Amino acid sequence: xxxxxxxxxxxxxxxxxxxxxxxxxxxxxxxxxxxxxxxxxxxxxxxxxxxxxxxxxxxxxxxxxxxxxxxxxxxxxxxxxxxxxxxxxxxxxxxxxxxxxxxxxxxxxxxxxx
Length: 114
Known about the structure:
Elements: H1 7-27, E1 33-39, E2 42-49, H2 70-77, E3 80-84, E4 92-99
Antiparallel strand pairs: 1-2, 2-4, 3-4
């Protein structure tokens, strides 16, 4: 992703992916699947798990340590986000979208080896 997106967009995407995957692994016993779509100037990331319970953002207390902040970060940093229930095989998909995902031609991103 870093070779296709501006550095700041890639960093936000990586943080949010980490948060959603961590939520899926901590709150379910069946793993998670991640998919990403980069189109025009928008990045969409979907994290699917196999638990039907919908996530609910909440404001953590000081006693929560580092727990309970994942969906708050998604709400704060994503341009759009939501939860969809897949039609087949149960579970849910938690997704987010970031605008301005494609780096302009000649922009400051790592294009990889020449």
